[in-house]
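Can anyone check this?
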Amino acid sequence: MLRLREERLKRGWSLARLCALTGGIDPAALSKIERGYWPAGPGWRRRIAEVFEMPESVLFEPVNEGESRCERP
């Protein structure tokens, strides 16, 4: 799981709300990104980080080591 999910929940935002704030990134895609099932491309990473007003390096770091499914072979 990425810090992205923690930050979204801290703010009380639903995936639908984050979708609206990012200019239409699909909620299903956002969910997969948060859980580490799907890597966010550079454009999406930038858009999401801008919404949270946080650096990408912080927002997209894993909060539980070994859980990111994008990095598994």
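Reply from J.R.: I decoded it. The chain is about 55% helix and 0% strand.
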